[in-house]
Amino acid sequence: MILKLLFLFLQVAVGTDLQKDLRECPDQDLAEICNGQCGQKFVECREACTDSICESECLASFSACIDSCPCYRDCPEGCFDCEHPLCFCKDPEITNPTYKQCIEEAGRELKDCVVNCVANKDCFDLCYGNFTVASERCPCMAECPGGCPCENGYNCQPFILALGEWRDHRISYVISSDGHFIENRHFDIPDGDGTYSYLESAGFSILNGEVYIFGENFLIKNRET
Fold it and tell me: Does this entry carry the keyword Signal (predicted)?
């Protein structure tokens, strides 16, 4: 009730349509989460104020926050063509690399736990219980519904793909920026001719989660001859 009264007050104060009908919005759940986050930020901002100028700035920030939410002024069609961070939680298993990495880490821990269990159902149940707890902490899940950054302690961090080659020696792995997570990756790379490395002078790019390798030294040499 208090939250509804606060939103009514804010609607009058900033002219933002907080009470608009979201039932026709394709991403109603994300719009409601965003709405709540903006309201919470406003409360925290206003509580820290000591003058009316500060309170006015809080109102302006709140209005901009609401306008950027899915289904509101800047994103009237929900997450379609919307850059709001919450939209990365619409289909996180497809579009959110941090969510996928978090689930993958939890799955790896589950696998290690089950493999180390003796033939005991209680041990298996404990492993699956730990997996459930770990997955709930992932971005876009129950303890971090708004995606990164997560306030529950999960470290949303970038992951680095390392590719290296020298003659017949190759390395390829993914590593987190803090070094906590590392996992080998396997790529089919053409062999060199003994005098060059295929990855030498090559360019790399990632698009939609796919790694692309452009050019390499051998092709350059072929073009020159």
Answer: yes
